[in-house]
Structure formats: structure tokens, C-alpha cells
Task: structure prediction
Amino acid sequence: MTTPSTVSQPPLPDVIHRARDFARSGLEEALSRLHPDLARICGYYFGWNDVEGNPTRGRGSRSLQAALVMLAAEASGGDPADAVPGAVAVELTHNFSLLHDDIADGDEVVRRDRPTAWLAFGAGPAIVAGDALLNEAVRVLAATANAATAVRVFTDGVDHMIHAWASEPTFDRAPAQDIRLDAYLDCCRGKGGALLGTGALLGTILCGKPVHDGEALRRAAHHAGTAWQAVNDLENIWGNAALVGKPGFQDLRLRKNTLPVIAAVQSGHAEVPRLRALLAQETLHEPDLQAAADLLERLGGKAAAEEVARTHLGLALGVLETVAVPARVREDLAELLQFTVTRRPGGDAGRPGDRGEPRATSRPSDFLAVDVNLGIGRKQNDMSHPAPPAMPLPRQEHPPVVDDVREAHLSWLHRHGLLSPGAATDRYLKTRVPDIASYCDPGSGSPLLSSDVYGWVFQYDDYMDNAAHGTVDPAVTSELVSILHHPLTPTHPLTAAFSDLWDRLRTGMSDAWCHRMAWLWQEYLHGNYTETADRREGRVPTSSEHLRIKDMSISVHAMFAVAERTGGFEVPVEVWHAGYLAALRHHAARHIILTNDIRSFDQDVAAQRVNLVSLIMDEQELTSAQAMQVVTQQADRHVHEFCALGDRLGSFCDRLSLARDTCHVVRRHVESLRHWVRGSYDWYDITNRYTAGTR
Result:
């Protein structure tokens, strides 16, 4: 059994002390209705008595849920006394969840510095005690004046929490590389934030206010809960065992696919196979556990979890800035949410507490069971002015070859009926589409071919955007796909122009090279058709689905292949499929896709098109500025991962023992990816294509 902690616990914020007093009598009354044996188990869990039922001063619950109910009542301008049943209900439910969670995990033997209830009393009695607490929670709310609404809100929150519990085992059964990060974070939100958010709504409802008055606090609570679960994942690998109350590396011992593991395995790092092999060992001894933890940190798993915690804590505090409440209540709410994640009493360190004591001050992680950097203490994220996506790659001088081919390119578009002379041509030139060749493919040995390819892609994209408002013509997509595999007589201007492009592109290409490029073009065409059909039918994808579709429909991967052709080099098929290069292309494409959605957000909103920022606003209940920041941070992460991988190109060539000429080709390929990442970023700065209303 793990020895109970003798390490000093963090001082509690003043609002916690007030919340404990706020809910205590109601909790005592609820437990008095239980069978005496169950009341003894629950009192033990609350820290009120020992195993024999003798009064003690155990640590007990921190009462975070009760505190949020109380503050929500104060924020609504109601009488907090009316919200006591809500505080009691969420505290009862929180302890119900822990009683069951300890048993479900099977590894929890210490809770709140003493043996868990199932170890002290037996699993069966502990389960029944948890059931009794949940039943009492419903009973308490059913006796309130707003019982129907309160019980509905409460059961919705518990349902979200239970769904998270139910999905958690699936993450441990699935390979970490196949786990969707958004699905895992939704589970975190359900486990860590659902009950907190429910408390915020109950505090509002029970004071006679409408549900929507508590929505902002509920969103803030969800973010704080997500941040806390990310920190909990960190604790269960790198945590101080004396504070965590369980052995070090516990989640690694149990082979749990938590956030650090998922992020590390999906990093594309060259050492991922070593990590997976290590975690797959039948027995993990202490040196193995330490090696796995070190690998997770080196592969970015720890940093990724810290980033999730930092981001969602910042979002939680940012949401509070949108709530019109008295200054003191806002400070208490901010301190409570910050303490939920960091266990550090925050706020104004010099402001005296309600008990006449100075507020405790400490470093951000003094009381965390693991040393993490959440950036607490500096000004939180400015939600109204999110920074643009990062661009660590240096700006390059692009030769003005486009000026030499501009007229020939326009003539090609006119000849194929893709662009009419006059106003349409003027609009096309204002969006600087021909310039993208000099930005993204500056080393092209066929600048006119590069310009024609990019120009055709933009014309096709616009055609599919317009088709979304009418009938999608499947014959156009079918004809384009057919052109990739055999000659035919085109029947549409787009297909005639593409037939000409395909003949020019495949000249001089090997069969394997041609087949690979055809496959990428076909994926792009089908991706566009799927995206357009969904739009026409009014189907809104999830954010994950949107990114998967964009991986195909934005044409980036096809353009990477075009850069090979115009650059005059061919990556051997066995090297092109290597995980290292695939990861580089993935990060490059994702940065471009995310930047595109950031830049086109205003125009997409005006045209009622799907955009990642809008999807995240709906899924995570954020403002546009907050969602923009989330997407921007994702774009930053991808470009930095791209650069970090690019720096290991030499070791990749050495590891595969590639011949010198093959290494040269691979370097050319990576350089062309760099051109695309930096070039598309710069091109956005000179075009007005993504200004609302200009397309």
C-alpha cells in the first residue's frame, strides 16, 4: 500500500473555506438520511470520521464544486442561500464519482491521505455508498422550487460525466497513434469539467435566474476541468508520489494512453518506435519506466500536455472577462478556476483573506505534484487580439519569374475558357493568384507550367464553391479522374484545361512517379466533391472531419508532388512513403490548412462556408477570438514540429543508409516543402483573395 502523504498540502483560497461552511450543514443532513453503515463510509470519505466512525479532522474534499455553485449564485445577483441544495448535490455527486472511480481503476489505494473506501470497507459497500450519494443528490434537488429545471440540468451533467467514464477504457485498448486528440480532450472535459459546469448552472437556476445566465461560467468551468485533467495526466507520470498518493509512473505501469503518450506517439519523431516497443514490454521495471518517461518528455508529450493545460486555463480565465459580475466575485471566480488547475491560491496576493490572513504566495508549481510550466503569473491570453500563426522559417527572395509568364498564363486561361477577358481577368489579377508560383515554387524549372497548375486549382476551387449552391455535377469530377488514367475527349472547360495540364505534367515522369501523382490528384478531386456535396446538403462536419477533408480538398499534397516535377527530381517511392517524410508533409500541410482557415475566416463566415474556427467556436463554446487563438496555436505547433523534424534530415539519411544522390533528392524534397510552408504564408500577406466579399 502506498504510504499516505506527509507532505504539506496547499493552502486553500478563502473562497474554499467559505464554500465548506456554505455546504456543510446540508451535507450532514443528507448523510443523516443514509443507512448508518453507508453514512460511516461516506463520512470517512468526506474526512469527518475514521473507519470506526470516530470524529476526525481528515483532509476531505476541497469543495471546489460547492464553491463554484456559491459564486455562480453571487454572480447572478441572487441569494446564495437559495443555492445551497445545488452545492450539496454537486459535492455528493463528486464523492460518488470518486468512490466508483477508485474501484474502477483498481489501482487507487490512497485518497486524501488515507486508504480508499473500497480498501477500508470493501468494494461492495463502497459501491453502494456511492449509489446512495447520487440518490441523495437527486433527492436534494427534487425538493427545490425549481426542481424540474434543476434536476434536468443536473442529470445532463452527470450523463456527460458518465459518457466520459464509458469512453475512457477505449483509449487504453486502442493504439495511441489511432486516438483522436479531440475525442480524448472531450473525455477530459467530461471527467474534469462537466460537474463543475453543472454547479455553475445550478447556482444560477436555484436563485431564480434563467439557465443562459450561467452559460459563460459553465464554459469557463469546462475549460478549467480540461486543463486539470491534462495536469492530472502529467502528475500520474512525473508526479511527486508523496503528493499524488500512488507510485511514480503510475499511468505508465498501467499502460494508459493518456495525453502525453498520445501526443508523443503521434509526434512523428524518429524515436517513436523505441517508445512503443518499450511500452509494449510485458514487464516494466523502474529503469524502463524512467526511460519511457524520459522519452515522452523528449518526444514532446509532456510539453503537449502542458500546452493543453495552459491553453484551457487561459480560455477559462478569458471567458470570465466576458461576464458582467461584481469585481470581488470575478476575482474569486478567477482564483477558484486557477486553483482548480494549479492548486495555487491566485489572485491578488496582497489582498487579505476573509479570515484576516494574508493570501499565500508561491511559485506556480509549488503545490502541484509535478513540476510543470503553465505560465501562471503573467498576463493571461489576450483573447481579442490573437497572435498570427508562427513562421520560424526565414523569408526567401523569390525571383520575379511570374512577370515573364503572366501574359502566357492569362492566355492559357482564356484559351480554355476558364477566365473571360475584362472584369473577370482584372479581379483575378487583383488576387495575385499567378504570384503563388514564385512564392511556393521559386525553384521551378517550368514557371509557366507552375503558374498554369496553380491557376487551374483556384478556378476549380471557385467552380466547386459555386456548385455548392446549385447542383453538383458528378460528371465533371468523374471526367477529371478519368483523365488521370486514360486519354478522353473533354466535355467541360475545366476538364479540357486539366487534360492539357496532365499531359504536360507527366512528360518525363517514370510510371511509378506518374502513378503516385495521379493518386494524389484523384484524392484532391474526390475531397473537393465530398466537401461540396456536404455543403450543398447542409451537413456540418466535426472539426476532426473538417481537417481530414481539407487534407484532401485543399490540394497541398498534390502541389508537393507538382514541385517535384517542376523541380526536376523524383523521390524514390520506398523513401517517399517513409514515416519521417510523411510526418514532414503532414505538419507542412496542416500548417497551410490551418493558416488558410484563419485567413479566410471572415470571408467564409460571410459566405456561410464551413471553417475550422467556426466549428471550434460551436464545439467548445468559444468566442471567435478564443477559437481563433486555439487554431493559431495548432498552426504554431505544426510549423515548429515541421522545423524540428527538418533539422533531423541528416540522421534520417544516415539511418536508412541512403546513397548520396538519393540524399540529395530527399533534401530537394524537404526544401520544396519549406518553400511551400513559407511561400504560402508570405503569399497570404500580398493577396486580397481572403478579404470578405472579394471572391
The longest strand covers residues 110-111. The chain is about 65% helix and 0% strand. The beta strands are 110-111, 114-115.
